[in-house]
Amino acid sequence: MPRPLQLIERIPGDRGPIVKRTVKDQISDKLAYMIHSGLLRPGDELPSERELAATLGVSRETVRAAIGVLQARKMIEVSHGARTKVLGRSSMPLHESVGILGDLKHRSLKEVAEARAAVEVQVIWLTAQRITRAQLARLQALVDEQRSMVDDPVRFQISDQEFHQTLYRACGNGLLADVVFDFYGYALEYRRLALVRKNAIAQSVVEHQKIVDALRTGAPDAAVTAMRRHLDQVHRTTQAVMKPR
Fold first, then answer.
1. Phi/psi of residue 192, each to 5°?
2. Please, are residues 131 and 191 in contact by the beta-carbon 8 Å criterion?
3. Mean pLDDT of the chain
């Protein structure tokens, strides 16, 4: 059985390597980032410890410890016998990655979408040539899980971030991976609105599978085509919910 792909070595937006950071801290920072960015919102119920552990490729004990960190920061509420709920951003300073997102928010959707597509095409081109069997297995496992998440936007969003981050890291260029993940974080609050629309998650899962299938062939052109189609769909659906009502 392939060993789960190691979790991120850098928090989104961070330009330096994590030094002496535990996996617990990486998981708590990852969830905190999602809360600060608006991907997870007050009142959302997190997946169970078992589901989070499976999606993130860590133990339940690690997830439990990470949840404890966020509970201490008053970002989530843990109740016995009930799902863990998101309370919202704490009074602690935002992580550097969120500051980068703030800069991007001054840019238009079209501008960011064009820049993201340009970088992400290069990333997927490299990934198609460098991805390992273990990384492919990790991506496939995430897609297989996502098929059970079509009615669970919160759980899917966590898995979607893990899917894209795994994909980016597989390109073998840490700088490119960091840059494209910053683009991924743009307008996450609107992506949340787009994902609750009918069939939106199911469509994303189909596109994720096509990306994995293309990567499995080892043909960069096929992988780029699959990613372009996914990015076009993300752009269209995000643009639709950003339009004035």
1. -60, -45
2. no
3. 83
* pTM for the predicted model, two decimal places: 0.70
Q: Which tens digits make up the pLDDT trace of 6-39?
A: 333 333 434 344 345 688 888 888 888 888 777 8
**Architecture of domain 96-242 in CATH?**
Up-down Bundle (1.20)
Whether residue 170 contacts residue 135, with contact meaning beta carbons closer than 8 Å, is answered with yes
Of all residues in the chain, the percent with pLDDT exceeding 90 is 49
- Reduce the secondary structure of 81-131 to three states and give it as a string: CCCCEECCCCCCCCCHHHHHHHHHCCCCHHHHHHHHHHHHHHHHHHHHHHC
Here the tokens at position 239 are 């643009």
Q: How deeply is 142 buried, as exposed, middle or buried, from its count of CB atoms within 10 A (0-12, 13-18, 19+)? A: buried
The full set of domain ranges for the chain reads 96-242
Q: Which amino acid is at 92?
A: M
DSSP alpha helix (H) spans, the chain = 23-37, 49-56, 60-72, 96-104, 109-130, 133-146, 153-169, 174-184, 188-195, 200-217, 220-242
Which of 51-55, 80-84, 90-94, 184-188 is most confident?
51-55
Coil, helix or strand at residue 211 = helix
CB atoms within 10 A of CB 36: 22
How many other CB atoms are found less than 10 A from the CB of residue 77?
A: 14
